């Protein structure tokens, strides 16, 4: 099978070189959604329509206008992946640029390592799934916090600092950190007051809770806590087994780099790291929490311990679920990498998104975008398992 696919790829590539794909001047080959760039979202459109007949041409992923979405269209997309229209607007300077979204930490980091299909299932999996299906606790799907049309107070503001931004000294009483913070940075308006700062010039990602900014004194204060993780490290808290950097610390072992889905990741069609989920209420079983977490919030009335990972079952065919384009990108990450239960939400099982309602509205994300995936499609990986 692989040999046949390879031969198909080579054959079509030669044909495309000899007889370039023709289209109107306004159409970029492989650009299904018309955003003037060929990226992961276009792949998702092709995948959703694969093996279907269509009269919609490029907009359905039928890049050669043959009337059917097939492997030839995939090759066209692949050959043009990363292409942009010269008239395409320049990305905002606060966001990473390039064909792949930025990923914190080393390639072999726990956060960046997908789970094998045959990863061990937790002995309490059935109990935890049943808890998730209890309608008095939560809805029957993982919902998004700060999706368009819902409260924005608890979304995760994410900023990308430059070396030219002012260097602030911030402290939570036990940790003191120096970090560049953009002038327009502001924490979320909710009681958590959270914010994430990527400062690549100082090789760190810094999270704050209970954060506030006084524009008169140009001062940041932290009423909650600070977490700081070195971007070039493996991202494990210095108190967790296997950590390779003594400066990594905070939020009970969970870095801000995984605490929310970023806009640029979904725009580029790939989330290549583990995420963090908020559970309606966590609890204590044989242990209070599992590695890589180094602490927990204690028994909150639930039964699912912090530090355990939930993922979409490997045998679930995501393409057949009728997911929207952004939901499919996120679901793929939740299937490959899973979601670490790290916090209590107080209301339903949730996954945070970056605080940017307008961008999510344009992308088409809704709070219930994962509703086609009921909890019966999920499973808990054995607590503390390291892939």
TrEMBL record:
This is Dockerin domain-containing protein. Residues 1-25 form the signal peptide. The keyword Signal applies. Gene3D superfamilies: Dockerin domain. It comes from Candidatus Gottesmanbacteria bacterium RBG_16_37_8. InterPro entries: Dockerin_dom_sf, EF_Hand_1_Ca_BS. Keywords: Signal. One of its GO terms (biological process) is polysaccharide catabolic process. The keyword Signal applies.
